[in-house]
Amino acid sequence: MDYLASLGVRNIDLNPNIHAKWTKNEADALPGIFERLGERYVEFYRQKEPRFISLIDSKIAVILREGYKPLEKCRMGNGEFAFGPSGNIYPCERFIGSDDGIEHCIGNINKGFTAGISCKSVSNVVLNKECLACGLTEYCMNWCGCTNYYLTGNYNFVSLFMCAFEKALVNTAFQIIQNLDYELLNFSDHFAGTPLMNVIEAVYKEKLKP
């Protein structure tokens, strides 16, 4: 993040590699990593050089509107579809891959859906017992079917790494909201023209009303 910021990049998109073999050691390191990211995010604002950090800003927006809404959650193969150059139908763009028409393929635009093949994620069903009891579940992306599949082999089972990742990220976003007043937390200078800026600013102003 610092390297990209030093080059003058103002919009920085960060995501974990969901194809990597993450271990408990990496999961345990995440709180410290996100704490440092949060500190730098605040420093950018205080130096009047704010940066849009995709992970942090999007999670702040989710917190301000009090959690993910139903239509924001994964509906892969059940209201959300992706299409390969061949016309093959997949439940998510992350599953297109080489577009071989075999793995994860649920049909073709010329032939319709393939009978007996279902590749769906039910966004409100999470198999981890820990998720059901977690106080952060409304702000967590435990519903992302493709992320769950690549890390655990099950659309509705969350990996240890992603659990730690989301917890660290949500806690960091909460800390930033508490540590930055609205005069500093003004996204218009670097979100201009993006829907996310409008969401954050509108929701925040609504919360400030008497």
Secondary structure layout plus pairing:
Layout: H1 2-6, E1 11-12, H2 24-46, E2 52-53, H3 54-64, E3 82-83, E4 88-90, E5 107-108, E6 112-113, H4 129-133, H5 145-152, H6 160-179, H7 188-191, H8 195-208
Parallel strand pairs: 1-2
Antiparallel strand pairs: 3-4, 4-5, 5-6
User: What's the order of the H and E elements?
Assistant: HEHEHEEEEHHHHH
Low-confidence stretches: 187-193
Mean pLDDT, all residues: 84
- Order of the strands making up the biggest sheet: 3-4-5-6
What does this molecule look like?
The protein is of the alpha+beta class. It has two domains: 24-38 and 49-56 and 65-74 and 121-202, no CATH class; 82-113, no CATH class. Helix content is 43%, strand content 6%. The chain is built from eight helices and six strands; from the N terminus they run αβαβαββββααααα. It has helices at residues 2-6, 24-46, 54-64, 129-133, 145-152, 160-179, 188-191, 195-208, and strands at 11-12, 52-53, 82-83, 88-90, 107-108, 112-113. The strands form two sheets. It has a four-stranded antiparallel sheet with strand order 3-4-5-6, with no helix packed on it. A two-stranded parallel sheet has the order 1-2. A hairpin with a 3-residue loop joins strand 5 (107-108) and strand 6. It is globular. The model is unreliable at 187-193 (pLDDT under 50).
